[in-house]
């Protein structure tokens, strides 16, 4: 207990140090937001710990495997991608520092918190206007959605990949100066979920290729070349992790029926084997919705899913397609990454509990796209207002003459 309290206050202190560093030269509002995120994330971390105490959790399994030398006696025996990488990161905490389970949970929750810091900078540097929703600032509200914090506050893949994604998008916002963040973020995402990095790299290539503004051709070509080189290195790992041989992928397609049926046998499962793809995607992104909520957690998430639906409705305007066509590389990359990851994960989202956890990794990209669209609409309104003011001024000058 004493060790855990020490680790808790140490991590809180480190969080404030990182917050001060990242808020330098960005304004006091950044620091205020970071402080709020620190305490909010800490509360949700405690909530997740209590949830894991009464429910089956991967976190305890990771800790147990390390403690009993499941993969070998040495640290390098745990190195690998996916689950092995999480155990690899946890190994020195468990074996070298002898931290108890709750302390390891805190360390990984801290990683998820830092991911929020980087995502917040990415949002604030890109979204120019303030957007209100029933009296709340939307950009602020996005960062206090409980499901995003809940699944990035534990010893597991969620916290680590959220940090990796935050670094990635923070980096590509200013590729010339932040390329180390892009490299580090890509390495982290690759080790947690290689297929998600693969999809994001596709999004980066397409986004940089078909964007006409926001970055010079030199950096655009450099990013494309690096992404293509990365493809060649991670392709085999992606295919092996997904479980398909190249020939099967080409000749037989991706038959996931057996895996889906296995997941649908879980308590929070729904059988989607007969669903059309749009319905599978809807299930992944916007369910549960109260009527099919799996337990108390599902009811809480249902409120958040209603919010996602309302945000989706904001995109249902005729100008949205023109916006996507004319948007910069940031919007295109975020949109394609969100759609690609969602389409892949939706194929196996029969288990609503699994869907709630997995979609937390990409919904922040969806919300960024929504805010970027609202920003573009407000920019057009502001431009129209400026034109009207100039015309009024010119008319007034003519009358004076």
Written account of the structure:
With 401 residues, this protein is mainly α. It has 3 domains: 1-180, no CATH class; 193-255, no CATH class; 258-401, no CATH class. It has helices spanning 2-23, 28-54, 58-67, 83-96, 101-126, 138-142, 146-150, 157-172, 175-192, 194-209, 217-242, 246-251, 257-264, 277-286, 295-313, 320-326, 329-346, 352-359, 363-400, and strands at residues 132-133, 136-137. Strand 1 and strand 2 (136-137) form a beta hairpin. The longest helix is centred in the C-terminal third of the chain and has 38 residues, at 363-400. The radius of gyration is 23 Å and the shape is globular.
- Integer-rounded radius of gyration: 23 Å
How many helices in DSSP terms? 19
Structural shape: globular
Proportion of helical residues: over 70%
Strand order of the largest sheet: 1-2
Can I get a quick summary?
The chain has 401 residues and is an all-alpha fold.
Q: Which features would summarize this protein structure in a list?
A:
401 residues; mainly alpha; 3 domains; two-stranded antiparallel ribbon; 2 strands; globular
Topology:
Layout: H1 2-23, H2 28-54, H3 58-67, H4 83-96, H5 101-126, E1 132-133, E2 136-137, H6 138-142, H7 146-150, H8 157-172, H9 175-192, H10 194-209, H11 217-242, H12 246-251, H13 257-264, H14 277-286, H15 295-313, H16 320-326, H17 329-346, H18 352-359, H19 363-400
Antiparallel strand pairs: 1-2
